[in-house]
Design brief:
It is elongated and about 100 Å long. The strands form three sheets. Strands 5, 6, 7, 8, 11 and 12 form a six-stranded antiparallel beta sheet that branches. It has a four-stranded parallel beta sheet with strand order 3-2-1-4, with helices on both faces. It has a two-stranded antiparallel ribbon with strand order 9-10. It is 31% helix and 18% strand.
Length: 332
């Protein structure tokens, strides 16, 4: 009878059986499909929408490619975008429509950022864009924003945004302070609004991409808004919809109350048209100043703010508070 090798004699049959079962379990784990369909779908969507090159629109995250042996990246490819597949519907979640939220940011408010994090719209479909002034306040706001971004983008995946862009203004701000009393002075409005338009145009044209379905302008001092804000606004299926803004204040009785704040949406009047006809090309006509009465129908003054209002019937899409300022959205 031939001798049994020493190594085999010392091997327990139970050990061999356990090793075999462990191997089978490992192979099943490797080759079986993931049970988390939502995670797989999110990851695939991010990969499919990723930019193909650093020069691609920044609203899509860029997936870096390996450099060549000489350390040089390949030239930019010719990218084809199928714009016919882009939709803007009243059910953007089901249709996976990308939303670009843009904010000129001179001061950072934690309440504003908390509202972004609380949005119930899938964050994988949201791109953020910011532009900040090169001032002491702007530098502080940029630092606070970067800290908030780092914490969010390194946190739970469902809270992360598809992409975030921060721009710095390349021109000096027209006024030094962003205090409400200073920025609402009538003599500051022309220069201030001109700078605002310039900054907003730079932000929009730099960040909008071929997959952007909706653009939401959201001021940085909006510190309370509903998590369903995007779904509320898109549900009206309008090309443009404007939110009203209301301000919290202490009334004569010392109690908190609200009042219309934003007068930038109106139905024009003949008085305003006559005033504009007499103005120079560089003059502007603005609301909220007693010495420039236009008698326009202000949207903020027509909003139904009663507690029992039918929000859909009154063409109202929700509430938001803006640095003690509220926004009630209405169709344009």
């Amino acid at each position: 009878m031939p001798a049994i090798p020493r190594a085999i004699r010392r091997t327990n049959p139970i050990t061999i059986l356990l090793a075999g079962l462990l191997s089978l379990g490992f192979l099943a784990f490797i080759f079986s499909p993931s049970s988390n369909a939502a995670t797989t779908s999110t990851a695939k969507r991010k990969f499919d929408s990723a930019a193909a090159h650093p020069l691609s629109p920044p609203t899509a995250p860029f997936q870096k490619t390996a450099s060549s042996a000489k350390g040089k990246r390949p030239p930019p490819p010719v990218v084809h975008y199928h714009m016919n597949n882009l939709t803007t519907t009243s059910d953007p979640v089901a249709n996976e429509e990308n939303v670009l939220i843009l904010t000129p940011l001179a001061r950072f408010y934690q309440g504003y950022w908390d509202n972004l994090l609380a949005l119930s719209y899938p964050h994988s479909l949201i791109a953020l864009g910011f532009i900040t002034p090169k001032t002491r306040e702007g530098n502080a706001a940029t630092a606070a924003l970067q800290a908030a971004i780092a914490q969010t983008q390194n946190g739970p995946e469902e809270k992360r945004f598809a992409s975030i862009t921060i721009l710095r203004q390349d021109f000096d701000p027209p006024i030094a302070s962003q205090d409400e009393s200073e920025r609402h002075k009538k003599e500051n409005q022309k220069a201030r609004r001109s700078a605002m338009s310039r900054a907003r145009n730079s932000l929009l044209f730099t960040t909008i991409g071929p997959s952007t379905s909706w653009v939401l302008w959201l001021d940085s001092d909006i510190i309370e808004s509903p998590p369903s804000l995007i779904q509320d606004l898109t549900s009206y299926d309008k090309p443009v919809i404007v939110p009203n803004c209301f301000q919290r204040y202490r009334n004569d009785k010392g109690a908190w109350d609200v009042r219309p704040y934003d007068y930038n949406s109106w139905q024009d009047s003949q008085t305003a048209a006559d005033l504009a006809a007499k103005m120079a090309p560089d003059d502007i006509l603005i609301e909220g100043y007693s010495d420039m009465a236009t008698y326009r129908t202000l949207m903020a003054k027509t909003a139904d703010v009663t507690e029992g209002r039918d929000q859909k019937q009154s063409n109202t899409a929700g509430w938001g508070w803006r640095d003690r300022i509220a926004g009630q959205s209405r169709g344009s």
